[in-house]
Specification:
The protein is of the alpha+beta class.
Length: about 300
């Protein structure tokens, strides 16, 4: 039997979803894909079911930039409840241990925070989507199995104390890719002389996309009732996803070469860099890599569905 053709539209762009709590990122992705009737869709880094906030979803050819957005920095607001440690590091997990909450004030936490900033190694938690022998770690964790995990190099750029109560604290954290906020918060709670777990996690920035640009699933469903054209108005241009990448304008002959996987030579003042590729009509072609000699190799070239 032959493969069935994928159904859906060849629609390209990025929509920023304000992910609701209690749903997986993949569940939200499938909802968005269905609403847009998109042939292809992908997100740029999963949020835990408990977590809310910025979830950029790439449609169509925009999925070719998703890996670069995944590598970008993120920012979160997180609340830690003290006195209880859970197996998952958040309130979705089972309580493993309880402890007395020591008396603390703002200064108690502020004095600790510098120790957790900067470049450092972090061991991913068992409750994560990382895989061990092809099996997601969280599935092993649910079976009570714990395996050794390699530490990963991360960077915490900034931690700000937003508020405290007698049994909790709320932080704003700006960090590199691969950072597990649950692990960070747990470490801070132990340093405070207690244990703790995440009860609120909200991503406020991902790859430069913010909550101000985000739309809820409910809002998107309401717009969908007006038709696909109205929905498409919510899409952000893919070429704006990597604003720091230099732009290269290719002639018609160069465009043909790039679409055939061939390199082109350009006269640019840039040094070696990842670049965005455009044709002479400013249509976005995709991504390339330029050498110091001005040779541009195509990396992720968009399919022209109008051809």
């Amino acid at each position: 039997m032959g493969r069935r053709n994928k159904k859906g539209r060849n629609i390209t762009g990025i929509v920023i979803i304000d992910k609701p709590t209690g749903r997986s990122s993949n569940h939200v992705l499938q909802q968005v894909k269905r609403l847009f009737d998109a042939k292809k869709a992908g997100h740029t880094g999963a949020l835990d079911p408990l977590a809310t906030g910025v979830l950029p979803i790439c449609l169509g050819e925009a999925t070719k930039v998703s890996s670069y957005l995944l590598d970008a920095d993120k920012a979160y607001h997180v609340t830690c409840k003290l006195g209880e440690v859970t197996d998952s590091g958040d309130s979705d997990g089972e309580v493993l241990s309880t402890s007395t909450i020591p008396e603390f004030d703002e200064q108690s936490i502020l004095s600790l925070l510098p120790k957790f900033m900067g470049e450092q190694d972090q061991v991913p938690p068992m409750f994560s989507a990382l895989k061990y022998n092809g099996q997601p770690l969280y599935k092993l964790a649910r079976q009570g199995i714990e395996v050794e995990r390699k530490s990963r190099r991360i960077t915490i750029y900034d931690i700000e104390l937003l508020s405290i109560t007698e049994e909790s604290f709320t932080l704003a954290v700006r960090c590199s890719k691969g950072t597990y906020i649950r692990t960070l918060v747990e470490d801070i709670s132990h340093a405070l002389g207690s244990g703790g777990h995440v009860v609120m996690l909200r991503r406020v920035d991902a790859a430069g996309y913010t909550l101000e640009q985000a739309i809820t699933i409910e809002q998107l469903e309401a717009i969908a009732e007006q038709g696909l054209l109205a929905l498409d108005g919510e899409l952000l241009a893919t070429e704006d996803a990597l604003p720091d990448w230099p732009a290269i304008v290719a002639s018609d002959e160069m465009v043909v070469a790039l679409r055939h996987g061939q390199t082109i030579n350009v006269e640019q003042e840039f040094s070696a860099a990842n670049v965005r590729l455009f044709d002479t009509k400013q249509a976005f072609l995709g991504l390339g890599e330029m050498s110091e000699q001005g040779v541009v190799a195509p990396k992720r070239v968009f399919v022209d569905h109008n051809e």
